Amino acid sequence: MCGICGLLGYDRSGETLQQMLVQLRHRGPDNTGTWATDGVALGHTRLAIVDLSSAGNQPLTNEDNTLWLVANGEIYNSEELRRELEAAGHRFRSHSDNEVLLHLYENHGEQFLPRINGMIAFALWDGPRKRLLLARDRLGIKPLYVHTSPGRLAFASEIKALLVCREIATGIDPEGLAQYLTYENTFGQATLHHGVNMVEPGQFLIWESGKLRKHDYWKPVFQENGNIGFLDACRRYREVAERAVKRHLMSDVAVSAYLSSGFDSSTVCTLASHQMRRPLATYTGAFSTGGWYDETGGAQAVATRIGSEHHVVEIAAGDLVRHMDDILFALDEPRMGMGSFSQYIVAKEVSRKYKVILTGHGGDELFAGYPVFKLPLLLQQKREGRLFRSLLDVRKNEWPHLVYFMLGRIRGGRASCSLPVIFPEKMLREGLQSDVYDRLHGIRPDGPMNAFPAEGADSYQRLMTLYLRTYLPGLFVVEDKISMAHSLESRTPLCDNELVDTALSIPLAVKLHADVLKAIPKKAMQGVLPEILYQQPKRGFPTPLSHWLRGELKEWMKERLLDLSSPLCALFRPQFLERLVNNYLGSCRKHVRPLDEIQTHRIWALLSLEAWLRQTRDRLGVQLTLS
Asked: From CA 492, how far away is CA 606, in angstroms rounded?
């Protein structure tokens, strides 16, 4: 894991590149490297994990120094690709897994991209053709940002590295802001920074002769096996998951793992421990609030069973006060809710001893772990006249989510029934400053989401495509920024290519066997995981933010959101903010956790916007206003 950046067509590019590398130093404290030629400058900060020698430093080049590469991430099938390339006559300078990219490009051009099994974002300069190839892995595990202007291109792993380029003028992007306020996320190429775009998951860009071309090399393809039975699917999952975890243990440094009381992280930790010669180090976050927010019991049961070196990281309300600004600065822009806070605290502790950590990301999206995945089956059963019987099988804790999304479907919009809406349009009309609302009015925040599903796909395929192309990449961006703020590489074994392809081949009815969410992983690991995991409700590493904001952090929240000198007042009417905060503090919904979630996310979104605007101004000297 590293940081990459580059400039094409800029004057004084060497000086600017050094400034960019300073902003990426946390991503790679082990080495900094640059390469430049006429009008082209590439930079790299290295976190040494595979091939710890200086031969693995980047930029990397090919045999005749005509291709130059900077890359961020890992390629888990690099050994088999390397053997193939060596047999074809290629000579390697290092044992870095990233070096295969150069030689694959020599043989196949950009057509090699679908063969990569890994998490990777890279830039490759082709000297003879005078063109730059930029690419991002299939699911968007590694981020990559681009800014273009006539005859010039700049790219980086993080937005803050682009903002130090004084030639790049940016502000708040109206489309990105509309998406964030509505869904607490941005989609496709959109960011909150005007003029700064993300390379999308499964996409590559080519910059040649001063022009940028975009191409998709991967999208979810459903090849469902209608003959597969539930037990066969469970056996298939277990076999593929074991291979995926083994591939993700590729490292020349020690590997650790996050461990909650959920099935995904527990599965990853268990399968990893079976393949390691030394005890796996596992980390769990623990809130002093206890109760619903306490996952230590299940995590400890897993740790005891696998014999891991287990660590419990205590998280308190004061940590949020101390680290809120650092979290938002690390993220570059607010995104994806309050989970980033607890992730930040645990990652900080992990990084004291380790450079690599395994996560359980992807299990819910790939194997139907969210209640919303029951909607397509319920709609199908309604058409078949079996709805009433199916509703009787819905579990009590799933009802609030299903009712919410059903109402969203009634209100209209395919995307609106699949993701929670944080600020409805009516609330934005009442709360935004009139000039801000005028700029956002007419923007369809769900527009990019409705463009994803393939024509002819059924409702389940559209839903899964939506989550794989929008929701999951958002989680990945947060995980990358939060872990790399502490020079920690996070890996996602459950998003291995083979496991993703397996998930795309299994029908939804099999994934929801016996009306159980994530039925396949649960059954596949039964008898291996502790029984306590099967006796508890799904949590998803919840944060007791609502308790804190109505208790010991109430005055801190009010100071951040209601100060008339706050940059937030340039976007929202102060009287609206005051009414929103007061209603939140006195809301009767606080006694019903599922009903309280949306309004707590609403407060978090505002706290995040405030910290982002202020930190971008104070730390980078960039005053963000609506473009």
From this structure: 30
Quote the CA–CA distance of 60 and 37 in Å, as a whole number: 14
Residues in the chain: 627
| CA 554 centroid distance within chain | 30
Residue 463 pLDDT exceeds 80? yes
pLDDT tens figures, 293-352: 788 999 999 999 999 999 999 999 999 999 999 999 999 999 999 999 999 999 999 999
DSSP string, 227-241: T--HHHHHHHHHHHH
pLDDT in tens, 8-41: 999 878 899 999 999 999 999 999 999 999 899 9
Strands 118-126 and 67-75: antiparallel
Which residue matches tokens 């359980």?
Answer: 360
**Order of all β-strands in the sheet with 145-149:** 31-37, 40-46, 2-8, 152-156, 145-149, 197-198
Rounded to whole angstroms, the Cα distance separating 94 from 98 reads: 9
In 366-517 the beta strands, taken as DSSP E runs, fall at: 489-491
Q: Give kind and range of the element (H or E) at residue 411.
A: helix 399-411
Residue tagged 């890996």 (tokens): 491
Q: Which of 72, 212, 194, 201 is nearest to 153 (CA)?
A: 212
- Whether the pLDDT of residue 404 is over 80: the answer is no
Alpha carbon of residue 462 to chain centroid = 20
Checking if the pLDDT of 376 tops 80, the result is yes
Summarize the confidence of residues 167-173 as an average pLDDT: 89
Pair of tokens at residue 254: 């020690």
Helix (H) or strand (E) holding 108: helix 100-108
DSSP β-bridge partners for residue 529: 526
The gap between the terminal CA atoms of the chain, to the nearest Å, is 33
